[in-house]
Design brief:
alpha/beta, Zincin-like, 3 domains, five-stranded mixed sheet, four-stranded mixed sheet, 6 helices, 12 strands, 26% strand
């Protein structure tokens, strides 16, 4: 009996690729590369292991390129815990905004498009600064995503698509997801870092699943019809640290 999950190794031109194979009820062989260097493959139990090894070998250039990119980004941009102090940078809609923290009687957070201003009664109160910034960022996300949902819906209403329920959460391997049967679109909270044009692409991509609930040729033809420059918009998402899916 084939185990549900197993680790396999595939000799390739540039060395050995180690990957984790998970057997599940899927139609295709799916490849995912995590930021920690893990290579994950899922496939139906009916697919021979030798075929999957061959699939990984065919994808070796893509895999090694993605792993090298993650390593480079990790070295250039190490994950440093937030201190909520002046000088920290936040990325919003593709732009880097510096944080300016000031003591004030009235607490608030706002941006002028160049900087983010955090006014707080006690500049040394880390927890209070964290609460204010977290609340503001969530409100920023919600306002932006709701705006784009409404904007995109105007183009889909004629297809009989219901106005969707929006959910926002942090996802490790997807920018968004759609549940056509429940009328739900879920967007990755990290999308606020991407240029607006790229966020518009993700929203339209998920809306398109209400009409084509898969990634068939018909789906991509429909996306191209609705947004001819979607490939350029999607490419901008590569600049954000994220797991890679093929």
């Amino acid at each position: 009996m084939t185990p549900k999950t197993q680790q396999r190794q595939v000799p390739c031109e540039h060395g050995v690729i180690t990957y984790q194979l998970t057997r599940k009820k899927v139609k295709n062989v799916n490849l995912r590369i995590k930021q920690d260097g893990s290579v994950l493959v899922s496939a139906n139990t009916r697919v021979p292991a030798a075929f999957i090894d061959g699939f990984v070998r065919q994808k070796q250039d893509f895999i090694l390129s993605a792993l090298a990119k993650y390593k480079e980004k990790s070295e250039l941009h190490p994950q440093i815990p937030r201190q909520y102090a002046s000088g920290e940078n936040y990325t919003l809609l593709g732009r880097n905004l510096g944080l300016k923290v000031e003591e004030a009687q009235s607490e608030s957070v706002y941006t002028d498009g160049v900087s983010i201003f955090l006014n707080v009664k006690d500049k040394e109160n880390f927890r209070r600064k964290e609460i204010l910034m977290t609340k503001w960022l969530k409100e920023y996300q919600t306002a932006l995503f709701q705006e784009l949902i409404s904007q995109t819906y105007a183009s889909f209403q004629k297809y009989g698509v219901p106005f969707p329920t929006l959910k926002i959460r942090t996802m490790k391997s997807r920018w968004g997801s759609c549940q056509p049967d429940k009328g739900i679109i879920t967007l990755n909270s990290r999308l606020i870092e991407a240029p607006r044009a790229s966020v518009e692409y993700v929203v339209l991509h998920e809306f398109a699943h209400f009409i084509h609930p898969n990634h068939s040729k018909a789906f991509w033809d429909f996306v191209t019809m609705m947004m001819p420059d979607w490939k350029e918009r999607r490419k901008e998402l590569e600049n954000i640290r994220m797991e890679v899916i093929s």
